[in-house]
Design brief:
Bound molecules: iron/sulfur cluster
Oligomer: single chain
Strand order of the largest sheet: 1-4
Strand content: 5-15%
Shape: elongated
Structural class: alpha+beta
Order of helices and strands: EHEEHEH
Helix content: 40-55%
CATH class of the largest domain: Alpha Beta
Length: 116
């Protein structure tokens, strides 16, 4: 299985020079990965596919899956991971906000005779 460029590609060209095998080309104005040259970056100095690592979009370059259900589960897992991370983001945001708010409350001077 090789990687392929998707419709999410914004033609930034970053992956062109990043690909260690020169597999990424522009054909008829579209970015395209030659499956005969793409090695999934195996056997190179990189531990992750460079077209994915350099792509500024979420999935401008993805592994091409021949099997429908394999592809379906891959997309499902990515979406779930994305949503789960978002949940973490808002949990963290709320925790930091609450902590900062509590710190600010501690700094507020209370007039004499009023209990906190
Ligand atoms: S996975 Fe690696 S070899 Fe294949 S197109 Fe992407 S950067 Fe090039
Ligand atoms: S890095 Fe991503 S957005 Fe940029 S040309 Fe390559 S696939 Fe397209």
């Amino acid at each position: 299985m090789a990687y392929k460029i998707t419709s999410k590609c914004i033609s930034c060209n970053l992956c062109l020079s990043a690909c260690p095998t020169g597999a990424i080309k522009i054909v008829n104005g579209q970015h395209w990965i030659d499956p005969n040259l793409c090695t999934n970056c195996n056997g190179t100095a990189y531990s992750v596919p460079q077209c994915v690592a350099t792509c500024p979009t979420y999935d401008g370059s993805v592994i091409e899956r021949k099997d429908y259900w394999e592809s379906w589960f891959h997309t499902y897992n990515k979406v779930v991971t994305k949503l789960t991370k978002k949940q973490d983001y808002w949990d963290n945001w709320f925790n930091v906000y609450s902590q900062k708010f509590a710190e600010q409350l501690q700094k507020v001077s209370i007039p004499d005779g009023i209990e906190r």
